[in-house]
């Protein structure tokens, strides 16, 4: 029996709560072997990011080719990519190796509301990576930024934005409703068959660092194990909701702490 393998292409989080570290913890928690391609090093902790060191595009290419030439990668998750050269390197690598499943988390807007990507990098995401994706997982501000539209305020606008994002060439879109209000956080999965609302209870905790990274990598883990898209998304939401609910068992840092990836184990 072959081992399910997932690859994360993303930035590193020195405090271990988000990015590559969150992705690898998620893969391990879900029984998938994790490999990584690091696009940027960050100096960060639970209180914020104090520095970013970009990895040269040629070295991103070297990492991609090293992994794919040896490992049977079942699914790829792509997270933080801020540089045009790195986006080109990833697009070329995906073209060369043709992985079956690609989950793209278009990390464009920080929790603070700050835009993380320059306009030309957003264009490159739209034209070079989104058309290759099995699924993209924007939150409400990121969905709006990809379409150059205001942030959606109701379900009908979210549905129409999902359809327009599908028109960019990806096979499915999960618009995450965590930025909304109310007792439930509702995500919307848009495919060629229509839009599915996926509610989850909103958990009252400040320890939510790495939630988006972990959701996209949990979906990639499911796809690597052979789940269909809807099952992978539902199972990933269940995993992340439980990890958020268990986050207050941790006492890590003085800001927004991490979620508890290994809540089933300790």
Write up this protein:
The protein is an alpha/beta fold. 37% of the residues lie in helices and 22% in strands. The protein is built from 8 helices and 9 strands. Strands 3-2-1-4-5-6 form a 6-stranded mixed beta sheet. A 3-stranded antiparallel beta sheet has the order 7-8-9. A hairpin with a 2-residue loop joins strand 2 and strand 3. Helix 2 runs parallel beside helix 3 and helix 7 crosses helix 8. The protein is globular and about 45 Å long. The two termini are 28 Å apart.
Keywords, separated by commas or semicolons:
266 residues; globular; 6-stranded mixed β-sheet; alpha/beta; UDP-N-acetylmuramoyl-L-alanine:D-glutamate ligase
What would a concise description of this structure say?
With 266 residues, the chain is of the alpha/beta class. The protein has a single domain (5-249), classed as Ribokinase (UDP-N-acetylmuramoyl-L-alanine:D-glutamate ligase, 3-Layer(aba) Sandwich).
Task: Outline the fold blueprint.
Layout: E1 5-13, H1 19-29, E2 33-45, E3 48-54, H2 57-68, E4 75-78, H3 84-97, E5 102-104, H4 119-129, E6 135-136, H5 140-147, H6 155-166, E7 172-175, E8 184-191, E9 194-201, H7 211-224, H8 229-245
Helix pairs in contact: 1-7, 2-3, 3-4, 5-6, 7-8
């Amino acid at each position: 029996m072959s081992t399910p393998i997932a690859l994360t292409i993303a930035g590193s989080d020195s405090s271990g709560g988000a990015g590559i570290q969150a992705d690898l913890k998620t893969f391990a928690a879900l029984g998938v072997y994790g490999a990584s391609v690091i696009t940027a090093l960050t100096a960060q902790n639970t209180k914020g990011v104090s520095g970013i060191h970009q990895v040269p595009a040629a070295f991103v290419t070297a990492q991609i080719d090293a992994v794919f030439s040896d490992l049977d990668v079942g699914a790829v998750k792509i997270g933080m990519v801020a540089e045009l050269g790195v986006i080109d390197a990833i697009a070329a690598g995906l073209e060369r190796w043709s992985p079956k499943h690609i989950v793209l988390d278009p990390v464009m807007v920080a929790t603070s509301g700050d835009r993380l990507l320059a306009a030309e990098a957003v264009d490159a995401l739209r034209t070079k990576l989104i058309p290759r994706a099995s699924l993209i997982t924007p939150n409400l501000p990121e969905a709006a930024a990809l379409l150059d539209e205001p942030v959606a305020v109701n379900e009908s606008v979210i549905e129409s934005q999902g359809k327009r994002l599908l028109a960019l060439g990806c096979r499915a879109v999960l618009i995450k409703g965590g930025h909304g209000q109310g007792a439930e956080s509702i995500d919307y999965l848009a495919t060629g068959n229509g839009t599915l609302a996926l509610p989850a209870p909103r958990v009252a905790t400040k320890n939510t660092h790495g939630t988006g990274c972990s959701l996209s990598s949990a979906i990639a883990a499911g796809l690597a194990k052979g789940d269909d898209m809807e099952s992978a998304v539902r199972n990933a939401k269940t995993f992340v909701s439980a990890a958020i609910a268990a986050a207050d068992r941790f006492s890590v840092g003085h800001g927004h702490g991490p979620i508890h990836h290994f809540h089933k184990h300790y």
